[in-house]
Amino acid sequence: MELINVTAENIEKEHICCAIADSDGGQAGLGVRAKKEWMKARFANGLVFKKLNVRGKCFIEYIPAEKAWAPIEAAGYMYIDCLWVSGQYKGKGYSNLLLDACICDARAQRKKGLVILSARKKMAFLSDPKYLKYKGFRTADTAEPYFELMYLPFDAAAETPHFRERAKHPKLETAGYVLYYTHQCPFTAKYVPLLAEIAARNGAAFSAIRFESAEQAQDAPAPVTTFCLFYNGSYMTNEILSEKKFEKMINEAM
User: Fold this and answer.
1) C-alpha dist (Å) from residue 246 to 26, 58, 231
2) pTM as predicted
3) Confidence class of residue 231 from pLDDT cuts 50, 70 and 90?
4) The CATH fold of domain 3-166
């Protein structure tokens, strides 16, 4: 099965897998346009987006760790933003195909290994730790409440990556809901404004802060930067919430 590299030259004609249903114009296409603009600005930093030549969620996205939008210290490694295979493409070896392509690329660039964000158990929007361990990844560092930074070193002597200290204990001093997010994920452009409307309708204090550079994201107060929600200073979730889920969260808090 053919793998396609999405590049600055072909990005306008290629879909980006994770948001195919929103790829048309209008309001629904906001996330796709935001994601593609985010990607265009990252290609010069070594961003790679490889996908299976199918119309479905089957892709891997990675970038040199020094340029990753993540609060980690992993000089010389390649950071995997996302490895996603779902639906009819699961269980057919495509995850292995994509990961092997990343490994080959990282080795060709003389990287020390791969790094990826996961959790103690499988959770939404985070890589499956069971699969990663099966592929030889090990836990490099942990952060509250459930995050794990996993790595696959190419050399046993390679230094171990780790989270930045601020991200290990997610905490804020701000009251109300505070959401940190990026346009790295195509769903945030659509859902963040909806969550802000729901908060206003329910009289809940809400602020959304978008990371606009790798430097800002690397100083994030939690390991995940695509979507990270706090309430009264406490970390809540990295799951991109639907309107119904967020409204339920607000009602329960009240």
Assistant:
1) 24, 28, 12
2) 0.94
3) very high
4) Aminopeptidase (3.40.630)
